Amino acid sequence: MSTQRRRAARWPVIVLVVAGLYFLLPMVASLEFSLRDVHNTHSFAAWGRLLSYPGLLDTLFTSLWVAFGTVALTLLLMVPTVSWVHLRRPKLKRFVEGISLLPLVIPPIVLVNGVLVVFQDAPEIVNGTPLILVFEYVILALPFTYRTLDAGLSAIPLATLVEAARGLGASWPVVLLRVVLPNIRTAVLGAALLNLALVMGEYTLSSILLMQTFPVWMVSTGRTDAGVSVAVSLLSLLIVFVLLFLLSIVSGRRTRELRPFTPSAS
Amino acid sequence: MTVTEAAPEAVKRAGTSVEFRGLRRSFGEVAALDGLDLAIAPGELVALLGPSGCGKTTALRVLAGLEQVDAGEVLVDGGDVTGVPANKRDMGMVFQSYSLFPNLAVRDNVAFGLRLRGVAAATRRRRAQELLELVGLDSHGHRYPHQLSGGQQQRVALARALAIEPRVLLLDEPLSALDAQVRTQLRDEIRRLQLRVGITTLFVTHDQEEALSIADRVGVMRSGRLEQCDTPAELYQRPATAFVAEFVGTMNHVPGVVAGQEVVVAGHRLTLAEPAGARDGQLVKVLLRPESVTLTAEADGQALVSDRSFRGAVTRVTATLPDGTTLLADLPSVTAADLQPGAQAAVRFAPQPVLLAEGE
Fold this sequence. Notes:
- The complex is a heterodimer.
- By secondary structure, chain A is mainly alpha-helical.
- Chain A has a single domain, classed as Orthogonal Bundle (MetI-like fold).
- In chain A, helix 1 packs across helix 14, helix 11 packs antiparallel against helix 14 and helix 13 runs antiparallel to helix 14.
- Chain A is globular.
- By secondary structure, chain B is of the alpha+beta class.
- Chain B is 24% helix and 33% strand.
- Chain B contains eight helices and 20 strands.
- A six-stranded mixed sheet of chain B has the order 6-7-8-3-9-10, with helices on both faces. Chain B has a five-stranded antiparallel sheet with strand order 13-12-11-14-20. Chain B has a five-stranded antiparallel sheet with strand order 15-19-16-17-18, with no helix packed on it.
- In chain B, helix 2 packs across helix 3, helix 2 packs parallel to helix 4 and helix 3 packs across helix 4.
- Chains A and B meet through helix 9, helix 10 and helix 14 of A and strand 6, helix 2 and helix 4 of B.
- Chain A: One of its GO terms (biological process) is transmembrane transport.
- Chain A: Keywords: Cell inner membrane, Cell membrane, Membrane, Transmembrane, Transmembrane helix, Transport.
- Chain A: Belongs to the binding-protein-dependent transport system permease family.
- Chain A: This is ABC transporter permease subunit.
């Protein structure tokens, strides 16, 4: 029995090691590649050239503001919508979930054209600038956002909390801001991070729309200087990791504070 | 855990009258409320009791503004609030499930409604503390809901509901998630608090013992309508309908034969409580409370004692009549000593008007 237990206990470790290697090996390889110099030597030359390349900071900032714009618009649209579905139309959950999955199967060119058609009469500031990407990415992020928020809302007794708040005098906006949002804070942060990671790495739509974003810059730079391109990719990953780390700290603290709905009966 | 003696001035107020007039509410084909009429006097605690799906919770939610009606009116202090949204009604509600905001400490939960009303921070803190003292949890203000037991959470929910000085207190089966001991304790505390504060209260429950022990009046609901709304004693002793009689307390169903305005049961003539619509000679089932049945040990008695259950001052004796009918009798324990299983017993019934079971 104890031998069986020891064998069973090994499996999680094996899985963890294999998964870790699967993720780490490409990164280690990338790091090694970015450090390669002439005559089989290694140096930080490619990392040093990073800042000197034109367009790095511009495209990075463009991607960042598009990312934060996407996060803001997505949450503004999705938190009330998913809450409404949970509260008022729970039978529509599957339907809405199905709709939210469509961006995964719709080809990017169709998505781009669809959004362009919708915004064809919009002002130049929307059509002619990376702002159009915000609207594209909101749709693209829909599957991840919906599922994350749906999981967060399913984990709390939403109807009871909302009704309690309403009974105490809260208007609907107050209910959303002071009751729903704080209690799905982890899910909201998770959705925000997924949005952020998606936008910071999305190439196809930006490229089709001829927008100079960070991933587009990475690809074009990679054609001339592979070392810098890989270094920037790693930097981009590092940014996402830092954000993930911050999120885990914040959500970890919140989880310890909240841990609701497991009261004892006494 | 006890409730502190003095209610804070903040929550002492004159009661409010409530009236339901012809409330109707359907969910698809199901009529949850089917012309419900009810009047609650200021400061009164009325419990709505009934089987699942009878509409009691819907009625409470309609009063809270959480449910709309298809027809009818809700009057609070004479004013029509039927179309008023929930957040404008000033109703304090305690839910069946734990409803404290998990992201807020206990003190902030209690002060939540006050904050929405723009009450200054210092006043909020003071009143939250007063309310927590009132429910005996003044030392728990800094804790989070998950750090409290179920009973404590419901106490905080009660304090939170009272903090806004509601016009009416609504209790939607607030004790059903608690274990028996805590339920009884909290039930008594709710009643003491309600009397101290003097707030009009509507209490919904499916537990008849809870309803009968806490309420000034109990309304028994059936299929969206009120069958009877009376004091617990009236309801128990003089049920208006067979449904109420059977729903509240325990009833024997004893065969009888109608004879004019009387019914013959095991050789005894008993007066019918209401025109039953049964014809002479018709076989019926008569409803008799266990305490209306007397058994005395007699060798030639017609009932055979089959079981007995000691309940302190009273012993419940189970006996079988010759036709196989099982009869329950609650007898003073001192007189039931001879009624051991296997003994023959004579049966007598209290000379009270009786009701007939429905559909029999």
